[in-house]
Amino acid sequence: MNHKLFKNLCSLLTPFILYRPVADWLALNLGCGPDYRVGYVNVDYRHDVKTDLDSDLCEFPWPWENDSVDDILMWHVLEHLPDTERTLREIHRVLKLGGRFYGQVPFCRSELSYAEPTHVKHFDWITFKAMERYGFRVVKSEPVAFNVTWRHTLRNLIPFRRSLSHLLWNMFDAVNFELVKKDEPI
Fold first, then answer.
1. What is the Cα–Cα distance from 10 to 14, expressed in whole angstroms?
2. Are strands 136-144 and 174-181 parallel, antiparallel or unpaired?
3. What H or E segment, with its residue span, contains residue 112?
4. How far, in whole angstroms, is CA 45 from its chain's centroid?
5. pLDDT score of 2
6. Residue 128 above 50 pLDDT?
7. pLDDT greater than 60 at residue 17
């Protein structure tokens, strides 16, 4: 599947597209790529896409004040960042108490996770449960199966896929996650 088709598919599938016309509401679409969203500050380091702010997410600290952001969306971005722990601490720093951090990453045992050479981290839905130690409450961490090709359709008929996904590859394609800032990280 080509990257552009995949990005378009992800944009259609996301249940997270929200527009909040509140003056003091700050929502970030980090690593936005071509997925420019109204109501968000769209951030990317690439100059070939429309952004509101050019910023490299691998450079710390990020350009937002402590406890200043309400929502952070990272749609297929977290797997590209080499220092997950530092990134999570930075997300925790800039989010307000009760702020949401959500998005989607490729499932670690899927071809999507390894098909892109810039993926440096791989995630399971269990990975996000471990992020509680960084001061987040896990609202959602669930595997997602796309239904794009006839192979996906057949694969999605297999019973007990969640259990089998720890033994077999390509049982799922991605992981949707939503975390909420609850307190100070350990």
1. 6
2. antiparallel
3. helix 111-115
4. 17
5. 55
6. yes
7. no
